[in-house]
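Field notebook, page 465. I keep forgetting to write these up properly, so this time I am using the form the group agreed on. The chain and the ligand, pyridoxal-5'-phosphate, are recorded exactly as supplied. Prediction of the bound pose follows.
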Amino acid sequence: MTADHPKSFDLARLLAERGGERYDLHARHLNHQLPRMLRTIGFDKVYERAEGAYFWDTDGQDYLDMLAGFGVMGVGRHHPVVRKALHDVLDASLADLTRFDCPPLPGLLAEKLLAHAPHLDRVFFGNSGTEAVETALKFARYATGRPRILYCEHAFHGLTAGSLSVNGEEGFRDGFAPLLPDTAIPLGDLERLERELARGDVAGFVVEPIQGKGVHEAPPGFLRAAQDLLHRHKALLIADEVQTGIGRTGDFFAYQHEDGVEPDLVCVAKALSGGYVPVGATLGKDWIFKKVYSSMDRVLVHSASFGSNAQAMAAGLAVLAVMEEEHLVESARTTGELLRSRLAALVDSYELLHEVRGRGLMIGIEFGRPRSLGLRSRWTMLQAARKGLFAQMVVVPLLQKHRILTQVSGDHLEVIKLIPPLIIGEPEVDRFVRAFTAVMDEAHNGGGLMWDFGRTLVKQAVGSR
Ligand SMILES: Cc1ncc(COP(=O)(O)O)c(C=O)c1O
């Protein structure tokens, strides 16, 4: 190929020649804090290849992925069915994105998605989670004719201007004002919800059924009661299922854990396209779409140039087929319960380990103040410098010693979040629990090296103030 076309683009050659410059290229041309942060915590690895729930570095060592690319790799990396769908769609040389025809793949994917939310009728396809949320916010405002959106404290719905306006963390919002005049309420606070609704200007309430930050679930009955209140006040319930959707929590959508919850709009993205092609989808009721697209003149009033592209749609269809064939929703439920219960059984053995919570394969492990004096002084030293350093102290040896990738579940939180691919089974649960137990042993029984690293983190935290 290259012999015939010596000047044509050759990806393999480019990577072979310049792949080694990866960290320097990022430092020079992209967000320079990423390579800096990775070097600081010793995460500056070179991963070469990936499959399923694992990736491998240049020495051929395997790493267990308990992060799934922030949740996009629901069916695991390089799933053969998704890969084949993408090869097939490219080989078909479709007349995609003409923009003035009605290709079949978006219709078929919408049909499949809606089968999982039978009370909803229509889908808008965009390109990311934040775009799915932006779509819902716009549709809610237009359909109700009202301006204000309610959201939850600590919520995360994406980082573009509209979804940032419903972000419940100052750290993300700081310095980006003016945002939209939306209002935060505590997760689970029905009284506050009703008080805000009574003002008569609320278009909708956007909520993650399980918050990504800290892995906090709405209290039982809250979503149903919130829905009733919202509808009484002619406002909409918007479920953000960008992270929790597509089987993650052991139901296809997390709002389905509770009987009778039928959100007016549902936001989906991440795992829908198997981690290959960016995708976002906003599912909604017929009347909402009919209002937004109320006349032929308004046909493009909300649209996206890459929305519904054939690769994303083909990947989405393949992912939904895999979810069904491999029973991944059920698997997320049972494997998640196994992992959660085995981790929860450790709480009594380790005083720094306070709680294990979550649903399906979305699990939060929370650390807290120990009882014994020796550990307490170390804990206090970390807390005085910055909250969240102990969780970071756990994440680091999990990768460096045990080759397991996890993340701290948000800034200033002593919580680790596990969102592995839904294909993991008992061997991965065993490996994680074994490694986590070893790290907890080290933290509680001396563990000089681990606490030395804690001191390094403290110095950095204090130095960066
Ligand atoms: C609940 C939720 N909503 C929205 C988003 C934004 O998705 P994206 O990063 O694709 O814009 C995220 C991303 O983590 C999320 O967890």
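OBSERVATIONS:
- The mean pLDDT is 95.
- Residues 221 and 347 are 27 Å apart (CA to CA).
FOLLOW-UP: compare against the apo run.
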